[in-house]
């Protein structure tokens, strides 16, 4: 999206019309943000014949990652509360991106294998 300077007088008189986004770009924006948050597989071994031990290890690791992410978010909130907003934002961004990578690791691996 571009920033455009408008003539103040024309804007106040209502002579400047709002530009409309094309449907394809709106669809691409909404689809990409939705697909980022939805994992392709609920569990890494869903629908696959495999070892039950691997499944329980994976569930344990993901559960630990869930709790670590919650802990980092709480810690970032405490940092924010005491005025260190810059470091708090870094922690929040890092924990969110790390959490997404951990939760979608199997999907990423399957995508790379299909290339």
Task: Label the structural class.
Answer: mainly alpha
Give the beta-strand count. 0
* Number of domain units: 1
Calculate the terminal CA-CA distance, rounded to whole Å.
31 Å
Report the mean per-residue pLDDT as an integer: 76
Taken in chain order, the helices and strands follow as HHHHH
Our estimate of the beta-strand percent is under 5%
Largest sheet features: none
Shape: flat
> Radius of gyration over alpha carbons?
22 Å
Q: Roughly what percent helix?
A: 55-70%
- What's the total helix number? 5
Structure description:
The longest helix is centred in the middle third of the chain and has 30 residues, at 52-81. This protein has one domain. The chain contains five helices and no strands. The model is unreliable at 30-35 (pLDDT under 50). The protein is mainly alpha-helical and 115 residues long. The radius of gyration is 22 Å and the shape is flat.
Sum up the structure in keywords.
mainly alpha; flat; 0% strand; 68% helix; 5 helices; 115 residues; single chain
List the topology elements.
Elements: H1 8-12, H2 23-37, H3 52-81, H4 85-103, H5 105-113
Helix pairs in contact: 3-4
Q: Can I get a quick summary?
A:
This protein is an all-alpha fold and 115 residues long.
């Amino acid at each position: 999206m571009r920033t455009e300077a408008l003539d103040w007088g024309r804007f106040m008189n209502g002579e400047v019309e709002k530009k409309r986004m094309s449907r394809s770009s709106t669809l691409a924006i909404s689809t990409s943000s939705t697909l980022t948050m939805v994992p392709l597989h609920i569990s890494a071994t869903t629908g696959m014949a495999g070892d039950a031990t691997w499944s329980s290890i994976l569930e344990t690791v993901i559960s630990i990652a869930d709790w670590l992410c919650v802990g980092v978010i709480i810690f970032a909130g405490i940092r924010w509360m005491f005025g260190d907003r810059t470091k708090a934002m870094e922690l929040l961004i890092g924990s969110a991106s790390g959490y997404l990578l951990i939760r979608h690791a199997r999907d990423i691996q399957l995508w790379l294998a299909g290339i």
